[in-house]
Amino acid sequence: MKIISKNKKLLCPNCSSNKIKKLKLYLSAKDFEIFTCMACDLSFKENTNEDKELSFEDGDYYSKKNVGDKVNQRYKKHFLRRAKNHIDHIENFIGKDLNKSVLDIGCGAGLFIEHLQSKGWKVEGIEPDPNMFNHAKNKLNLNVQKKLFSEWESEQKFGLIYLSHILDDLPNLKGVLTKINASLEKEGILFVEVPNLSSKLRINFEKEAELLAGKYFFSINSLKDTLERSGFKILNVKTFRLVHLNSIFQILISPIMFLLHFMPDKYKPYLRIIAKKENE
Length: 280
Ligand SMILES: [Zn+2]
Known about the structure:
Blueprint: E1 3-4, E2 20-22, E3 33-37, E4 43-46, E5 48-49, H1 73-90, E6 101-105, H2 111-118, E7 122-126, H3 130-139, E8 144-145, E9 158-164, H4 173-183, E10 184-195, H5 200-205, H6 208-213, E11 216-217, H7 220-229, E12 232-240, H8 248-253, H9 255-260, E13 270-277
Parallel strand pairs: 6-7, 6-9, 7-8, 9-10
Antiparallel strand pairs: 1-5, 2-3, 3-4, 4-11, 10-13, 12-13
Helix pairs in contact: 1-2
Residues 12, 14-15, 17, 37, 39-40, 42 line the site of zinc ion.
């Protein structure tokens, strides 16, 4: 068993503050610790047992995510609906002159870029998971590379870079955002969606499997701060709760689900930010 980074002096990976507090985890997370920066509110995982790290390349990452690792009808329906919803939202912030080219980092089975390609966009995806890559590349015939973002290189600049439930899982947050910024054209748009952990209680009670996949745990404030420090201007912040048609009945009959419906916006479980590359 190898422990990554035990005992080094902890600094916040976003703002470098040394005002760091260890979070008490109520569930049985034995293989890592989570700390919160008191200055910028970013939470991050430390002292991880390397043997328990999820690998993007071995096919064990998607099985830990809620949506699962099977590209079946349910999966396709979910991601196509999400793709339409996301691009409708993004289009509100796109300038007339924006180059309609998109890079999807962690594109999964490729359903978002397939939808954009059908709307006339030039698309590129990166996906290290063998099963997801195979679907995107061989079933959908999309322009996708099987690699990690850290291994990806390109001279091309994109009009849109899209990270849906991935920024929180990639190591080296600062390096990732610097590379994304450099890969956007002037006025290029960044889309980021992550779990909203504006309430630290949610991290404490999160299921262990979900904590295993994440490396960073963002609140509204820490995601805004992190993006601004990496050269982005925030255009829109939205928190929301997913409502599937088949869960409306559950909402009506479950008192807890019904009460969650009235949760303040700040604590809704998902967080989406649209940002623009600031002019150099
Ligand atoms: Zn910080």
